[in-house]
Amino acid sequence: MKSVFIVADNILSPIGSTSAENFDKLTQNISGIKEHPAGGKSAVPFYASLFKDDQAFLTAPGIYTKFEQLLIASITDALKDSGVDSTDPKTVLIISTTKGNISMLETDADSPGLSHRIALPTSANLVAERFGFVNKPLIVSHACISGLMAMITGMRMIQSGQYDNAVVVGGDVITRFVLSGFQSFQAISAQPCKPFDLNRDGINLGEGAATVILSSNQQKAENIQLAGGSVSNDANHISGPSKTGEELFDAINSALKSAGVESEAIDFISAHGTATVYNDEMEAKAINLARMQDIPVNSLKGYYGHTLGASGLIEAIIATHSLKHNIIIPTRGFHELGVTQPLNVAKEIQTIPLTACLKTASGFGGCNAAIVLRKS
């Protein structure tokens, strides 16, 4: 089976427009989360990591929506020094998102034309045409595991020999529609989020886009390998996670097996860590079932908020840069353990030799995903 490597990446977020800028900001404990006043997105003030209203992503936006501009800007930066040709028949485009252009429901009159324009395949085709991809683009919209599931899909397509390269991009935009949905669940914290903390009370949302370029061609010795991955579903509740963590454990266990590594080989865990009471408790149970509770674990939601379809990609990219720089980013907002199971939550930045990382994500509908990243 072919090995798969991350040969280029990009993070476009409110704290930086490249992966290097983003990683540097995290090492300085800089977060994009701040309080936003009541207005167009919410009837009450809220905390989130959002782009400025007048921020430009393309010099000539043309027909593209904000969502599509984010994807295009992220792909452009990732591709420029990747050595991968988007017009190569052995290259495929995979797009990860949860909401796409859902904001058009708020701004445009209902019509057959709107139904077509808002559809994810329309955005995917526009982005693919922009870069000259010759293959039909794939869309992964699978709640909050979309980013990791898109990476696993790309990995498997390369391993099968169908493609040599996969450009995997994800993004989401926060709108009143999106925010009100989480507010209706009473899942939004009234303060900066506190993953795994005793006083955690909910998430912050965030905007962003990210791209990884996967390839069977290891171009540089420092390229990180996407060694394995797996998904599962607990079928517990439409919006509530498993009460036991057994199904995320199943995804972790299968990911480790597919990567050919034991849990002892993992140096740190990049968790989903949304800072909701139920998600963090479930994750702690799953990590304990895997007997990985002593391994340093972090959550990046305190820097980016929950970026939905981009979150798995953004956090996987930070994990690859952690491996390259031998730095574990601390869990911003965490002070005192607030889950019932023991967990080694990273509170301070750590500089130690790193070889392999486990990245997890979970989402509405009971879905779970896990991938293993390691130095080659």
TrEMBL record:
In Pfam terms, one family for this protein is Ketoacyl-synt_C
Q: Which GO terms describe its cellular component?
A: cytosol
GO BP = fatty acid biosynthetic process
InterPro entries (alphabetical):
Beta-ketoacyl_synthase, Ketoacyl_synth_C, Ketoacyl_synth_N, PKS_Beta-ketoAc_synthase_dom, Thiolase-like, Thiolase_acyl_enz_int_AS
Alphabetical list of PROSITE patterns matching this protein: KS3_2, THIOLASE_1
Give the family from UniProt. Answer: Belongs to the thiolase-like superfamily. Beta-ketoacyl-ACP synthases family.
| Descriptive protein name | Beta-ketoacyl synthase
According to its UniProt entry, this protein's organism is Mucilaginibacter ginsenosidivorax
